[in-house]
Amino acid sequence: MTLDDLQKKEVRQWIDDGLKVADIQKKLEESFGLSMTYMEVRFLVDDLGVMPKDDPEPEPEVIDPAEEAAVPQPDPLAEGAPGPENDLGELVDDGMDAPPAGGKVSVTIDQLARPGMRISGKVTFSDQQSAGWYLDDYGQLGLSPDQEGYKPSQNDLMEFQMALQAQLSRGGF
Predict the structure, then answer these.
(1) 3-state secondary structure of 78
(2) Residue with more model confidence, 25 or 99
(3) Which residues of 119-140 are buried (b: 16+ CB within 10 A; e: fewer)?
(4) Which of 63, 64, 77, 136 is most buried, with most CB under 10 Å away?
(5) pLDDT digits (tens, 9 = 90+) for 58-86
(6) C-beta neighbour count of 51 within 10 angstroms
(7) Alpha carbons 157 and 39: distance in angstroms, whole number
(8) Do 142 and 152 form a contact (C-beta atoms < 8 A)?
(9) In which order are the strands placed within the sheet that holds 130-135?
């Protein structure tokens, strides 16, 4: 399975033309009747001391900050702005308009995590309802409210996630 000097020169030319290893493998079969595995062709290319060309990196799109600022952005809080819709295109109440119910969300981290959990703790929402929270080995966050059927508001959930992230950062997690 050795190539003569003329065949080696032709393989070098194919590489210079930008052919990939798989393309060279096909050309060797078509042109010289040599059936080689991909790895054998890769070794051949390496032995010839040439490297297939990589595809050129696409140029990153440069955005002028002045142009970006000139494009008017719709105000999501403006009167008459479209709100969240359900699958039927009807507007639905997502609970985001309601201000917090008069308090803050507080988060604590357990010294000893619940069995089977990476980390766990307690959260008290703005309406003074409490729930246990946990982070499992897959990184999924879960809540188990103390009162069955309780669902915190969207604002409380967002505040909980931010407070939890801050607590975990402080704790070195």
Answers:
(1) coil
(2) 25
(3) bbbebbbbeebebbbbbeeeee
(4) 136
(5) 666 666 666 655 556 555 555 555 555 55
(6) 9
(7) 54
(8) no
(9) 106-109, 119-124, 130-135, 141-145
Tell me the β-bridge partners of 119.
Answer: 135
Predicted local confidence at residue 97, as pLDDT: 40
**CB-CB contact of 45 with 12 (8 Å):** no
Return d(Cα 40, Cα 1) in angstroms, integer: 10
What number is the average pLDDT over the span 157-171?
A: 86
Residue 136 is given by DSSP the state -
Query: Nearest-5° angle of CA 129, CA 102, CA 156?
Result: 55
Instruction: Please name the amino acid found at residue 4.
Output: D
Cβ-based neighbours of 3, under 8 Å, separated by 6 or more = 11, 32, 34, 44
Quote the CA–CA distance of 18 and 24 in Å, as a whole number. Answer: 10
